[in-house]
Description:
By secondary structure, chain A is α/β, with parallel strands linked by helices. Helices cover 35% and strands 24% of the residues of chain A.
Amino acid sequence: MRAPGTGLPLVAERLRYAAGGVTILDGVSLTIEAGPPTLIIGPNGAGKSVLLRLLHGLLRPDTGHIAWGGPAAPRGAPRGAMVFQRPVLLRRSVRANVLYPLGLAGLGRAERARRADAALALVGLAALADRPARRLSGGEQQRLALARAQALAPELLFLDEPCASLDPAATRAVEEIATAIAAAGTKIVMTTHDLGQARRLAGEVVFLHRGRVLEQAPAQRFFAGAVTSEAADFLRGALVW
Amino acid sequence: MQDLGAAFHTALQLVATGDPAMLRIVTLSLQVSIAAVGIAALLGLPLGALLAVARFPGRQALIIGLNALMGLPPVVAGLLVYLLLSRSGLLGSLGLLFTPGAMVLAQAVLIMPILAALSRQVLEGLWEEYAEQLRSFGAGPCRAVPTLLWDGRFALLTVLLAGFGRASAEVGAVMIVGGNIEGFTRMMTTAIALETSKGDLPLALALGLVLMAIVLGVNAAAQGLRDAAARSAG
């Protein structure tokens, strides 16, 4: 599916980001390696979404830098795709929504059609391909956003609290799709404040607290016993802020 | 009141008999205003979309300028085009003055700022929603402009209607650059002005009723089109 060689790891060093005089991230260093999903967890306001946007290149850090470290490190265009907490769907058909970024990526007509159909089949929306995208239910909309990102065959797929406004059934569908995408070789970096979800999906956990990375560890080790007291409190379900 | 009754009678008569002079006037009015909307849209809508997405020094001043130009008096627009097309003007060699082409140009100048300012307003909200996602796709402002124009197409239809309404209703600009020449540059509005000053109020009123009926019809058709399209496209 993808070109041989990889741009991973994605290395972030000493990121600092402030907005409106408030420091949101401070001294964040992080390496995203290929492998099972990395879950960025932490309380609301820890800076999870901002960190994801910095890694994706939607925001620029005030200081520090982010670079692809792999042998096939890409130049210019980012190799990431992102799914937002609330899906932003174009006022077009379901299928046209998937085709749009593929056209921007400069793919040929036949390849675009092939990828769009495959992506819609993956998320179970093939039957709704000609519906207006914005008439879909919330869960279907988020699945469409996932299909749209997956069709780009990104090396890195950023998911920003993709289930925050979904019911359990829709959440389960999104998790299954994310798992399938990860199994096919796409690295997933996802934020959540839902510990159960983190346990289900994470291969690795990054614990973010008040703009700092307090822990980065394999999921098993993290959930078996967090090192810092903040993470331990968070795992116990104490109110951490 | 008598005038109004007589006007309705005359209007019905004009329409029922298909008065050729009136048909010519109606046709020309529609042609000129539709052409003007087309030309103004070609420039105004992309300009509005660009103003919605791009951030550059002087943007705010440009927006204020466009908003102010929405109130441009038609006679002033007509005068500017007149100077441009007069024999000593920049485009004088085209020989357009006192032709339908000149009227199209004058109306286009009049409504271009309206289309640009209104489409900027309509598309700015859409851009706020789309901006982050489009940047995630790697689409710059130039690529965003056609996307916004397409995705905002139903709202933009209303903008075009506002432009058409302004163009078809104005009299000052076409009077100055067209000259109200019978059978050549006489429009609905200039004919109404002429008949009024000649004292033939029933005929003037009748023409006014026909004009209003046309504008009403165009709006109803556009609204129907918009609703049907919106139903099928979401």
